[in-house]
Amino acid sequence: MGKPPGFCIGLFLLWSLAIQTYGQGSGNAREVNVGVYLSPPFVMQEGEKLSGMSVELWENISQKQNLTSQYRVYKDIKSLVDGVHRGEIDVAVTNLTITEARARKIDFTQPWFDAGLRVMVGKKRRTSISDILHGLKKTGMLASYLWILGVIVLATLAFTLFYRKFDREFPRRWRDGLAESFYSVMSIATSGNAQRKNLFGWVGKIWAGIWLVCGVAVVSFITASITSVMTSLALTTQINGLRDLPGKTVGVLAGSVAEEYIRENGISTHGFDSTEQAVAALHAGEVDAIVGDSPVLAYFAFNNPELGLRLVGKLFNPDKYAFAVPKGSPLARPLSIEIIAAHEQGLIMDLREDYFGTVK
């Protein structure tokens, strides 16, 4: 028994609609809303023109799928993912990492780029006087210095009163006398040389010897404590990788995988909308380091050599980039097939070499 004519007509209409919608055959191109997040070298913008590795790959795929793109720029990764989830856009194009949390909200295409996270730091900062004072205060040594200063003040006053009474040649004006006594105290404490004559014979020499021992101890203590603090500052401020980040404030892109990973490891973060903002905060001392996608940070550092940025440590938390579409989108499968074809035909490798150089 044959199918009803209405059923056949319905199948034909659905088939015609599919051709028109996805650009198969000779139908008109389908217009899709494409969300992007500016992340050089994957997505860049000059005026109204978008470029970058992700954009080039998308333009190649969309041409083969007979799609025309209407682009919309999002300020951060989180907004882009939310835009896909709400159906504001048909596809998200950038260096978007595949994660479980995101996969519960949106669908991903076949991965097209292997990446991971890296730590970026700025120029090595010289230790300043304020850093040393802060270190001395933190270790409690600054309080000891204040006690030593108090002893010196009391000794200066005692010397002044003593010499005013027993030494007729001692200056009579108080300011001159205090200055003379202070110089004598510091001279005995640092070198053991008494600047004034000995008024008490062997007793005076013993007293000067005691001052000499005390002075040597004080000088040694001050030298050792400052050296210790400077060494500690050099070790604690130096960042050579992920393991040096606990206790530091790390700059990340808001809503990124880097932000999630660093927070999960109990490290303080400061979110930014762009790498430029994060680097500005790094140079201003608002953050101690930046954690982000390795290729993005490497590209930024390479193209801004005057900033003195360095990538330190090894790659960690390896991940994969893909395009994203709303849940159940019919675009997921054809886009994945085109990405697989781009891998097999060497297109993605060619793009990677164009933006990052020859892959070794």
Give an overview of the whole structure.
- With 360 residues, the chain is α/β, with parallel strands linked by helices.
- It folds into 3 domains: 5-112 and 322-356, D-Maltodextrin-Binding Protein, domain 2 (3-Layer(aba) Sandwich); 129-237; 242-317, D-Maltodextrin-Binding Protein, domain 2 (3-Layer(aba) Sandwich).
- The protein is 52% helix and 19% strand.
- The strands form 4 sheets. A 5-stranded mixed sheet has the order 9-8-10-7-11, sandwiched between helices. A 3-stranded parallel sheet has the order 4-1-5. A two-stranded antiparallel ribbon has the order 2-3.
- Helix 9 links the parallel strand 8 (249-253) and strand 9 (268-272).
- Helix 5 crosses helix 8, helix 6 (141-166) crosses helix 7 (174-191) and helix 7 (174-191) packs across helix 8 (201-237).
- Mean pLDDT is 82; it is low at 7-26.
- This is Transporter substrate-binding domain-containing protein.
- It is found in: Membrane.
- The chain crosses the membrane at residues 145-163, 206-230.
Number of DSSP-assigned strands: 12
Question: In what order do the strands lie side by side in the largest sheet?
Answer: 9-8-10-7-11
Structural class, by secondary structure, is alpha/beta
Low-confidence stretches: 7-26
Beta-strand share of residues:
15-25%
- Alpha-carbon Rg, integer: 36 Å
Round the mean pLDDT to the nearest integer and report it. Answer: 82
CATH superfamily of the largest domain: Periplasmic binding protein-like II
Number of helices: 13
| CATH level 1 class label of the largest domain | Alpha Beta
Largest sheet: 5 strands, mixed
